[in-house]
Write a structure and sequence with these properties.
The protein is mostly helical. About 70% of the residues lie in helices and about 0% in strands. Helix 1 runs antiparallel to helix 15, helix 3 packs parallel to helix 15 and helix 13 runs antiparallel to helix 14.
Length: about 425
């Protein structure tokens, strides 16, 4: 198989930088508008008094900025680590069909070092704007702000241990991404089966670590925002949202490369399988959504149902439409569009669904993070759009640079020939 080297034109690179620049401008405009509108109050019905009684501080543009930074970094970090996770699964499963996009999965992980830096900086500077439990007075029995529920979680929810977990998780993900990439590139040069078998062993180790780290990171980075609430399904729920988003990114990159004359061995059968994964995990996400929402709502236990009341009724129904919109765009749309075999083999249908679920699952993380950080004071304006464009531009820049650094096709992969004749 002949190597395929990707070349990114200066015009394309400039588009990515334009996205970042446009995002910065919109973010600054959004901050200015929010400052001059008194913080961007959207809620009502006395929720400010309730927040004050619960020990919360007034919401300002600073809270909104850090909430948006955290939201986008968690979202793109998840997409990046799914590139590593899904690639590792291909190795341990001895999968041959996925060879054409092995390098895409490896390149998506390029965001992880940037994500680690952003996560640490945002937490060190903006922890009080995002996480209620970082207020030390909540653990002090002599303080009027003492919270026995949060204090009871002090063994796990404390700043030193939180930072250690964050560093360890990001460090492990970055290391395993580098290690697997190294084996794949050396396989290109030297051939043989030794690198492939070593990649299987590395992948098996990573999957064990990922099973623990992905769950705890979901508890740390998302669920601990709503400190009083917990869900035994939440780690799976976050993973399913990350997984659909990561698969959508992989599919879109494969399609765009194919349409620009690359990935000649990629055929409709490969896209069909990717479409099946997006379809299947969209159903899985819905199952977990339903399991949390319906069972907690039906049980009507105050400590459990408050999470959903905040998102479905409180703050003058500020978030209700997003909850219903999530069900449509992340479940109904992929279900109806990708239900048939032909739809999974049509580029236009896959593009529609991939773009839709990428936006839909960004909104899903918005719904997970914003009520706990901004209560009823969040919005979908220039600040949100600007922050998202900045992170998107950085993500695309890092991923395309890594794609150009090696052949798009792993030329000595042992299942290369099998994948060329893949048929479903």
């Amino acid at each position: 198989m002949i190597e395929e080297s990707l070349t990114i034109s200066k015009r394309t690179s400039n588009r990515f930088f334009f996205l970042i620049g446009l995002g910065l401008v919109l973010l600054i405009v959004g901050i200015f508008i929010t400052m001059n509108s008194g913080g961007g109050h959207h809620g009502g019905g006395g929720h400010e008094e309730a927040a004050a009684a619960g020990g919360h501080h007034a919401i300002t543009w600073v809270n909104r900025l850090f909430a948006n930074l955290w939201l986008n970094n968690v979202y793109f970090t998840g997409i990046a680590v799914i590139g590593l996770f899904f690639g590792a699964i291909q190795y341990v499963a001895y999968a041959g069909w996925s060879v054409p996009f092995v390098r895409i999965l490896q390149s998506i992980t390029a965001y992880l070092p940037f994500g680690a830096a952003v996560a640490l900086i945002v937490f060190f500077i903006g922890q009080h704007q995002i996480f209620h439990w970082t207020d030390n007075s909540l653990f002090d029995t002599a303080s009027p702000n003492y919270d026995p529920i949060i204090a009871g979680k002090a063994g796990f929810l404390n700043k030193p241990f939180f930072i250690i977990r964050m560093v360890v998780f990001y460090g492990a993900w970055i290391y395993f991404a580098w290690w697997l990439r190294k084996q794949s590139l050396e396989e290109d040069i030297n051939g043989g089966l030794s690198y492939y078998h070593k990649s299987i062993r590395i992948s098996a180790m990573f999957l064990v670590i990922f099973g623990v780290s992905s769950s705890i990171s979901a508890w740390d980075w998302v669920m601990s925002i709503d400190t009083h609430w917990f869900s035994t399904l939440f780690a799976w729920y976050v993973l399913s949202s990350w997984l659909v988003s990561g698969l959508a990114v992989t599919t879109l990159i494969a399609i765009f490369l194919k349409q620009n004359g690359y990935l000649k061995m990629l055929n409709a059968d490969h896209l069909h399988d990717l479409g099946k994964f997006i379809f299947g995990f969209s159903i899985f996400w819905t199952y977990l959504w339903f399991s949390q929402f319906m069972l907690y709502w039906y049980a009507n236990l105050p400590e459990e149902v408050i999470y959903f009341k905040e998102r479905f009724g409180m703050y003058n129904d500020h978030y209700s439409w997003i909850l219903l919109f999530n069900l449509f765009i992340n479940f109904a749309l992929p279900l109806l569009v990708l239900m048939t075999r032909d739809a999974k083999r049509q580029v236009i249908m896959l593009k529609i669904v991939c773009f839709a679920v990428l936006f839909g699952h960004w909104m899903d993380f918005y719904l997970m993070i914003m009520p706990g950080t901004l209560r009823g004071e969040s919005g979908l304006g220039f600040m949100e759009l600007g922050t998202a464009l900045i992170f998107l531009g950085v993500f695309l820049t890092l991923v395309t640079r890594k794609l150009t650094s090696a052949s798009l096709i792993p030329v000595n992969h042992p299942f290369l020939e099998e994948s060329m004749h893949h048929h479903v």
